[in-house]
Design a protein that fits this description.
Elements (H helix, E strand, L loop, with lengths): L2 E2 L11 E5 L4 E5 L3 E2 L1 H10 L11 E5 L13 H7 L6 E2 L19 H10 L7 E5 L9 H10 L5 E4 L2 H6 L4 E2 L21 E2 L1 H10 L9 E4 L3 H5 L18 E2 L16 H10 L8 E4 L6 H11 L7 E4 L2 H8 L12
Amino acid sequence: MAIFHVLRRSVLRVSARPLQSSSRRFISLNSYVVTPAQLETVLAKNPRTKLSTSPRVIPLCASWFMPNDPESRTGQAVYEQGHIPSARFFDLDAVTDTSSPYPHMLPSPEVFADAVGKLGIKKDDEVVVYDSKELGIFSAPRVGWTFKVFGHSNVHVLNNYKLWVEEGRAVESGPEQKVEEVQYPVPHLDASKVIGFADVKEIAKDNGKEGAEGVQVLDARPYGRWSGDDPEPRQGLSSGHIPGSFSVPFSELLDPKNKTILPREELVKIFTSRGLDPSLPFVSSCGSGVTAAVVDAALHLAEFGQADARRLYDGSWTEWAQRVTEADGLIRKGK
């Protein structure tokens, strides 16, 4: 395994909270979206030892690429090309509900616990999920959201690995190192963070009706797919959008150069310009439930709306477009 170290910039002071343990003082991150400087600092201040009983800070690579990626890249391959030292790899395609006809549906609590336990992650460990340097922010928020859905509150999203590399922080290459598996407790699924097809269908049918709850569906796909002008990447799937939904392409929430999630002030401007109301509930959707979590993370970072009034449509457009039709008025095209 090759390890590369290059000169790095001065590390910014990390905003962290100390946790007391029986063996040493643990320094923990205190925000969901964290910077490379913050992660580097807590990794340095919480060195791993075999005797320590304190929680650990575990970087978790969640790199994932679309099945039709023009370069045929895979998350596992880019992980092996370079990753944060001691990082584990989370396979988004494997940790899913394999019985569902739709991609990336949430796994059962038992499948999640088994996968996380095999990664050597304990319930009280602090997990920092990150993406590939090629995409910046893409699939990591989905994995972070999944951890939260299953009650692992000590989870964060790195903003982002592209900056981690460009700013000269340590990177190692090679396959995953063997870790000691643990017995991760089977969690409960927090249903308040998820919404299914039937409930989204009711929201769509109530759109524009007097007395409707006013749930705002935010669609993270590119505008052309939302409007129906461009095709879906999945063959045979109609493009278009859920009636009443708002087009909020996830790429517009990222810095065009470094692919980080934009600062809070800029996110608020974007959400406000779309006519969104922070006093009303939000549902995030996309193609298959992956980049919808980027929108969810951006809402969190922007403090736009209430945290307990945000849900993610797990099946997203791949499920929607296979279960409704344009003829029944539940697939809209145009603005």
